[in-house]
Amino acid sequence: MAKPKSAPYGSWQSPITSDLIVAQSISLTDVRLDGRNTYWLEGRPQEQGRFVIVCAGTKGNEDLVPKPMNARTRVHEYGGGSWTVDDGVTFFSNFADGRLYRRNDANPKPEPLTPEPAPQAPQWRFADGVIDRKRQRWIGVREDHTGEGEARNAIVAVDLRKAGRQPASGAANKAGLVLVDGHDFFSSPRLSPNGRWLAWLSWDHPDMPWNGTTLHLAALDDSGHVQESQVIAGGRTESIFQPEWSPDNRGLFFVSDRSNWWNLYRYDLKSRSTEPLAPMEAEFGVPQWNFAVSTYACAGPDRLVCAYSGSGLGQLAVLDLRAKKLRPLKLPFTEFGSVRAKGDRVVFRAAAPDHPVSFVSLDLKTGKHRILKKATAILDDPDRRIAAYLTKAVSVEFPTTGGKTAFGLFYPPHNADYVGVRGEKPPLLVKCHGGPTSSASSALNLGTQFWTSRGIAVLDVNYGGSTGFGRDYRERLYYNWGIVDVDDCVNGAKHLAAQGLVDDKRAVITGGSAGGYTTLAALVFRNFFQGGASHYGVSDAAALARDTHKFESRYLDWLIGPYPQEEARYRERSPLFHAERLSKPVIFFQGDEDKIVPPNQAEAMVEVLRRKGNPVGYFLFAGEQHGFRKAANIQRCLEAELAFYAINVFKVGLTF
User: pTM higher than 0.85 for the full model?
Assistant: First the structure.
């Protein structure tokens, strides 16, 4: 191997190109077990971002969703839980028309189960379904957009014995029989194995599901109607996550943060009592931005397979329910999700800083695992030697405002062919995750390696308000959005500079959605970063409070304060109204169909900067919503952001 060449940081040539990233990558979200087969959902940027259910059976991998259908839902806008499988039959929501469909090997052409919508837009959306075999029903969450005002959410049952071929007009009952309503939001309807009990979660404005949810339990009569329900856990100050039934019908498992940490509990049907299962300072839950998220599964009546996280890194373990002992499993991954089990057979989604997101199968008897599917296979190509250009993630803890500590994942620059010029420190890209109630991922991200392999360091900040560090840490952001997160991003960068690891005079900041807001707030309200990029970010907090979808319409009550009562505070925290203080280059990326952060937010900010004569870029992508799914647009974002910094901040030669 040739000796690495000395070249300025930020100018290194890299084989991790934008076209390689989008050409080789797919997204892997959810995996399921049914009979002897494994099923999963994968998103394909090369196919206009559509999601496809894949069956990994004895005959190999088979696509179950024909083109151009897209197994995706927009319930709560963020979706998730768009599909399920039962006894070889798949059920899914199609993105274009919002209808539920059924598909099996005997009838491979998907059959609609709910009415055809009116021409203007889908009237009903469906998610998070389970199958009631006894009564031949799909039970799940329905979001009704047929009326005026906010959409109405309910748990409904769709009769599987009648296909939904009727027109939408006058066919509301054919879009599902309402089983439970009366709350603003529902999730996680879970039917007991014997079909006698139904559990579900609900919450109401202004709460988000990570603030407070309620766990309900009700008996079903022979026809499947819900009898009088009872509350068994939760409330406005307790977040409940992922209720699941034990295989023997004796109890209901769930995750609660009543101890400050999202820990596992079991409710016993006979004694009507609840007990903690593995109390510890770790998180067994995650924020419910999407439906059907699973961090644990029953591997028989006496054990659970569960994922938990601490200090930003994940672990998979087996919990013996009789002994109440947790046994961590030795696996080469640091992030886990979509955990499913059937006896000794376990499947899950996993990743590590040097391993792409993958679906993995694990045999609990032997302890051996195998990879079922990778999001990208470029590390397996010996000709590309991509692994030689990957950097490692380093967990960092740093001091921040008020004598507190915050966290992040630091990625130093690395390239097998280059080293930096003696005496020079690398530029720094600070990443702000979205949410803001979310966390930085430790999974291999070729988008991150795109920067580090060119000689640009990256810090992915888990600012106060992030998940994975307990409820108290999450609540640092209460009324403090635009302050705590901004301080932590600045202080994280300053910490690395003080350690001699980066050049603070060439530090930039980037983020999407809520991370885009933090980016703009840092550039407007602090004089530290030399430029930044807002990907569908918020510039006018009040406009977001007035003009966003139902799920997040009251989120800002918690993050900033009730609107319009605290209108002055919203104006004070909104970068748009203080744009005259911005003197650094900024580039904006936006989807023209974004209902969460509408394009007018970015465009208002861009207009102010243009009037001032600031270096500014603006890309509006047709057909994209909140987050980009089309390969060409993902590629354009990477290239444009790099070019923008290279010209306006890093002052280095440009290489893609």
Answer: yes
